[in-house]
Amino acid sequence: MPLDRDVIQSIAQILYSALKNGTTIAPLTDQYPDISVDDAYRISKQVLQLRMDNDNELVVGKKIGVTSSAVQDMLGVFQPDFGFLTHTMAYANHADICIKGNLIQPRAEGEIAFRLKSDLQGPGVTELDVLNATKCIMPCFEIVDSRIEDWRIKIQDTISDNASCGVYVLGDTEIDPTGLDMANLEIKVYKNSALISEGQGSAVQGNPLTAVAWLANTLGAFDIPFLAGEVILSGSLVPLEPVQRGDKMHLELSGAGIESCTASCNFV
Asked: What CATH code is carried by the domain that includes residue 64?
């Protein structure tokens, strides 16, 4: 049986307060053992509404979470999910990101971001549809975060918590995706100048285009479209890396058909 509307609103308020206060809560799946994935998405949308109503946040894109086996194995969550990006979550390349007051238990992940030039809405969106709707791709750091204590999440926890969104950083280089072998694009991630991980586009459902098409079709079931100008984060190609004050993160995106391009951020 779905959670009652009042319960959904109560959980959303608790998560919203945790976000604003920089605190964590016990796993929702411990408190509400019968919570479903559909319940979780209802909670997520309610939290987003609170952010829009109370803080004037604007949706500027969407993100896919838990797409690669590296991330699934690390978190023990074995199906993708989605969340919303707002304008307050976006940071410029080379930005200083203040952890205190903004993030609770952040982890950095390297991925490929898409910027759209036309609307898309599922069902029936294909990889070719995604390619035709894409203005450019960019290297990206997503700094995921969790309001669930100690990252003790199941799929319902992370969905409710906006797919464990934190903030994100886009590289400056905008790359035309036409003709690129997206599955074989490579990312190298550096922490404090040391190479810590590498991954390919194939890590996310075999191809980033496939992952974005999945998201468009999944959102279509909720009557949520992709809109021209939005940024879509296609999922991490590498394991999540915990970060703390003083860390400097840098990634390089390369592959046949593109020059090496970068994204970076500093934690202060």
From this structure: 3.90.850.10
Overall number of domains in the chain: 1
Copy the structure tokens of residue 253. 């995106």
Alpha-carbon gap, residue 14 to 18, rounded angstroms: 6
Q: Is the pTM of this model over 0.90?
A: yes
Range of the domain at 202: 59-267
Beta strands in the chain (DSSP E): 59-65, 81-86, 90-91, 95-97, 107-116, 134-144, 167-170, 186-191, 194-200, 231-236, 241-242, 248-255, 258-267
- Residue 72: is its pLDDT beyond 70? no
Residues 88 and 110: their CA atoms lie apart, in Å, by 20
Q: What pLDDT score does 135 carry? A: 98
Q: End-to-end CA distance of the chain, in Å?
A: 45
The residue type of 117 is K
C-alpha span between 135 and 40 (Å, rounded)? 32
Q: What is the pLDDT of residues 80-138, one digit of tens each?
A: 788 999 999 999 999 999 998 789 999 999 999 999 999 999 999 999 999 999 999 99
User: Between vectors from CA 174 to CA 168 and to CA 178, what angle results, nearest 5°?
Assistant: 120
Q: Under the phi-then-psi rule, with left for phi > 0, alpha for psi from -120 to 50, and beta for the rest, what region is 56?
A: left
Containing 55, the helix (H) or strand (E) segment is helix 37-55
Task: Identify whether 103 is part of a domain.
Answer: yes
Looking at residue 69, its pLDDT comes to 64
In a domain, 24, yes or no: no
For tokens 């509404």, name the residue.
Answer: 49
CA-wise closest residue to 33 among 59, 61, 1, 10: 1
Which DSSP symbol is given to 178?
T
